[in-house]
Amino acid sequence: MRVAVLGAGLVGQRAARYLRDLGSEVTLYSRGRQLRPIAGIETVAGFDPGQLSTDLAILATEAMHQVQVAERLIRRGISVVATADRPLAVRTLWTLDSLAQQHGAAVVVGAACAPGLSTLMVAKLAEGLDGVDTITTARFGTGGPACAREHHRSMAAEAWEVQDGAGRWARGGSGRTLVWFPEPAGPQDCYRAGLAEPFLLQQAFPDVRRIQCLQAATRRDRATARLPMLRPPHAEGLVGSVWVEVRGHTTERGVEHRVLAASAPQATAAGAVAALVAHDLVNRTSTFQGTRSVLWSTSVTHLLQRLPKDIGLWAHTSAIGGRPLSDSPIQAARKWRFTRDFS
Fold this sequence. Notes:
This protein is α/β, with parallel strands linked by helices. The chain is built from 10 helices and 17 strands. Helix content is 29%, strand content 29%.
């Protein structure tokens, strides 16, 4: 089965290369500009969703553009893997569930870095817990120009979060928290922002007491968030990281505190997750119809094991005594380089 990748930016090109390496036939479509030839990948300048001939498409264009394209593809029975990370785009894509079921198509929402890799990491940490009480995620860095513009927009937007089991809006740029990302990112101040992860995590973990998702930002980022971007965005942010914390409880060990972190350029992580999800959809003997997040896979571990080796993974674990909803500080966490056998 041939997979179409719509959008030839950093994420689209890397998703296409990963799919090629996984053995899939890939066609990479740009938004009109001619692309340089890529070994093993057919490249096409321009695309019309109404004329596309494929069974599955990865959407790697601007976030809000993906909503329009996804609806047209779904009506033709073409399954979609969407990399959009803008909250409005993700929420709108989520509403296409009944349309996708009607036309026998599958829609995977939030198949990028954050959300995407971050939500997979949350699901992995939640395995084996009798209950999950708190989920916190943080991201550092940006991908290409479109991602940099989204980072700028999100710092001025309202942030959705869950407190005491109820959703609420909070001011973007508030809630300063120091997060220790793996090197080379290191410790960074992170803040609330208009991110898509809380919505998707709430769908997967509806009973969690607290969900908060943060974004690393400098003083200049916060000061200029409500102004137009003062300079053109960079071609690519070469340093990126995602940090995820889950607090839960088990009957045997009491309160559990678990942390995973990943380090890789965000475009690299987003392209890898989109490619792996698309590859699984293409090769599964039975699949779903409707809208899901990347957690539709029955084996989160399997997806994480297949991440490219240039995405570094680290883990912290510890167990503390106390009540399951305790907010007491964590003591003596252990840190080690993550091994992908998950044994």
